[in-house]
Design brief:
- It contains seven helices and 23 strands.
- It is of the alpha+beta class.
- It has three domains: 120 residues, OB fold (Dihydrolipoamide Acetyltransferase, E2P) (Beta Barrel); 45 residues, Irregular (Dihydrolipoamide Transferase), CATH 4.10.320.10; 260 residues, Chloramphenicol acetyltransferase-like domain (Chloramphenicol Acetyltransferase).
- Strands 14, 17, 18, 19, 20, 21, 22 and 23 form an eight-stranded mixed beta sheet that branches. It has a four-stranded antiparallel beta sheet with strand order 1-8-6-3, with no helix packed on it. It has a four-stranded antiparallel beta sheet with strand order 5-4-2-7, with no helix packed on it.
- A hairpin with a 5-residue loop joins β9 and β10.
- The radius of gyration is 24 Å and the shape is globular.
- The N and C termini lie far apart (66 Å).
Amino acid sequence: MSTQNFNLPDVGEGLTEAEIVSWKVAPGDTVAINDVICEIETAKSLVELPSPHAGVVGELLAAEGATVEVGTPIITFVTDAAPAAPAAPAAPAAEEAGGSVLVGYGTGGGATSRRKRPAERPVRSSVGVIAKPPIRKLARDLGVDLTTVTPTGADGEVTRDDVMKHASQASVFRNIQTPEWGDVREETVPAPQTAPVGLARGVAPAPASAVNDDGRTESIPVKGVRKATSSAMVQSAYSAPHVTVWKEVDASRTMELVKRLKAAPEYADIRVSPLLIMARAVIWAARRTPMVNAAWVETENGPEIVVRHYVNLGIAAATPRGLLVPNIKDAQDLGMKDLARALNRLTLTAREGKTSPADQQGGTITITNIGVFGMDAGTPIINPGEAGIVAMGTISQKPWVVDGEVRPRWVTTVAGSFDHRVIDGDGMSRFIADVASVLEEPALLVD
């Protein structure tokens, strides 16, 4: 018999601390490897921690609601097996039956006395696939069998791009008036010397408040979601010079298309909304004005503008946990139906509070649908690490002049905020005009 400590791991995103939300086990409980022992909350997501041991729970070392630094012991286990001795580098994959290696937190070789964090080394499963825990979760969320994915990472590791490429089934939509994406996914151009855009982005749930003595006020601790979000927004607002432009749009034909898609048999199991057409419009317009999909980046040789030849489309989502901005990886590769499914998955996952940190990283441009709150327009703050964000206002019937006559039409407002270090007024205006033109005439998206 031996007692084993389990330290709070870095869940793969380089975070330094997390809050213990709830324990799923109690002292004396018998657990197997990979049984969920607790739920933690980082600045980015809720994460279930699996048990690294098979045995009996000894002591819970951290209380629910406590914020714990990575590497701090949080629980003890009483196990039958003694700690494993270090294995040679050439040893085979970690054995799941040994009772001492946490699947998802172990090493690619034999079990060692020091447990590696997932960010340090990916995990090899019993079928020989090498992938880090966040990549495995992404594959599960997308229904991808990792054994069928061709790995491109170091030492045969399956990367996020490998999973997303495998999950994508539709080819890139083409338009005769639209330039092709380049073969190089990113390129840099010289940039003037000025302050960088902050790259950190995090979210977490609203903490509990405390009523003050006089009962007239209450204090809400700023941590988790609110702390991370406020830090990112302040950093973005005061480092990137924001400029906002907007345009009213007759979206009647968009509404007609949405109605037709809802009635189409092939969309019977897919929720369709104007946001789908908006998403396609932004992707189409970004291809025509690539600088809106770029980023200002500080390097040791000075600032650069990185132009991305792909779109990781962020969708700002208001959830019970607070503001989340998950993104659809390589959205430019998705046809209408696959993009609709991706939006459905993204929305459902966010509402259930299951959005992973991986899904919130790497965005290139964001859409915020303020119309769902009945707002006509706004001046959104750019997501750090991006150069543009587009706001879609409510779509409502208004009087509109058509062929010299006033008629009731479905009208919305498209607004966009941009980093003026990266893109100038003509580019901003051209991009928003392109988005508006698609909402006015969705036929522009026809392949």
